[in-house]
């Protein structure tokens, strides 16, 4: 197996991503998403926020959304990706978003034969909101050439996916709990326990004093 470099990706880009729009190329004609050994994908039209149980649609009247600390979300890519049977792909989130605390908790590879938009299940483990913008370069895909074509390429239920599946959204509903909320709750619990121990010690001493006085 070997990773495809920028030259090979650019030569076969129509095969993987399809024709680029005019704003997807720089002045030199080079695709803006092209990196030395990978290609960057953009945030698409749908974002599901678990804490709000809400599907946000971007691109018409709203062009950005925010993931709160401790919140889960599902992100959809703008690009529709095609993985030929002689390739597989590894996917990740750009380092700039990782440094903010955005963690990918979904799969990390794309099977040969896949066609459609990709979804990323993510978690905000950072201290603040993470703002994401429509058509902003957010994800990375690495293409790997296999020794030979796979015998049975992917042809599952998510083939030609163009939106976030309802099943995925239902699995992420519920109240999120961030590490900072847990720390705050633990501190309150510790404070409560200290108060209770103080009262118990004071009560015990009071009973001992009363018992001694009764003996005298």
Overview of this protein structure:
By secondary structure, this protein is α+β, with helices and mostly antiparallel strands. It has two domains: 2-171, Deoxyuridine triphosphatase (dUTPase) (Deoxyuridine 5'-Triphosphate Nucleotidohydrolase, Chain A), CATH 2.70.40.10; 177-216. It is built from five helices and twelve strands. The chain has helices spanning 6-11, 13-16, 95-98, 166-171, 179-215, and strands spanning 2-3, 34-35, 38-49, 54-57, 64-67, 72-82, 87-93, 102-104, 109-110, 115-124, 130-133, 137-145. Strand 3 and strand 4 form a beta hairpin. The radius of gyration is 26 Å and the shape is elongated. The N and C termini lie far apart (90 Å).
What keywords describe this structure?
216 residues; 2 domains; 10-stranded antiparallel beta sheet; Deoxyuridine 5'-Triphosphate Nucleotidohydrolase, Chain A; 5 helices; alpha+beta
- CATH C-level category of the largest domain: Mainly Beta
Oligomer status: single chain
CATH topology title of the largest domain: Deoxyuridine 5'-Triphosphate Nucleotidohydrolase, Chain A
How many strands, which pairing sense, and closed or not: the largest β-sheet?
10 strands, antiparallel
Strands, count: 12
What fraction of residues sit in β-strands? 25-35%
- Low-confidence regions: none
Count of all domains: 2
Number of helices: 5
Corresponding CATH superfamily of the largest domain = Deoxyuridine triphosphatase (dUTPase)
The second-level CATH architecture of the largest domain is Distorted Sandwich
Q: What does the radius of gyration come to?
A: 26 Å
Measured distance between first and last alpha carbons: 90 Å
SSE order: EHHEEEEEEHEEEEEHH
Mean pLDDT level = 86
Structural class: alpha+beta
């Amino acid at each position: 197996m070997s990773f495809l470099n920028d030259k090979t990706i650019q030569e076969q880009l129509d095969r993987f991503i399809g024709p680029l729009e005019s704003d997807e190329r720089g002045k030199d004609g080079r695709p803006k998403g092209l990196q030395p050994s990978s290609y960057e994908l953009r945030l698409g039209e749908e974002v599901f926020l678990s804490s709000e149980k809400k599907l946000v649609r971007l691109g018409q009247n709203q062009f950005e959304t925010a993931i709160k600390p401790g919140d889960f979300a599902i992100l959809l890519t703008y690009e529709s990706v095609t993985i030929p049977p002689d390739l597989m792909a590894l996917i990740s989130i750009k380092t700039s978003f990782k440094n903010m605390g955005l963690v990918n908790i979904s799969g990390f590879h794309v099977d040969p034969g896949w066609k459609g938009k990709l979804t990323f299940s993510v978690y905000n483990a950072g201290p603040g909101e993470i703002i994401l913008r429509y058509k902003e370069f957010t994800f990375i895909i690495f293409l790997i050439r296999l020794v030979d074509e796979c015998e049975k390429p992917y042809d599952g239920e998510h083939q030609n996916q163009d939106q976030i599946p309802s099943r995925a959204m239902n699995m992420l509903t519920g109240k999120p709990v961030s590490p900072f909320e847990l720390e705050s709750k633990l501190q309150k619990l510790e404070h409560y326990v200290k108060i209770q121990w103080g009262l118990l010690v004071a009560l015990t001493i009071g009973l001992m004093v009363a018992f001694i006085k009764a003996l005298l």
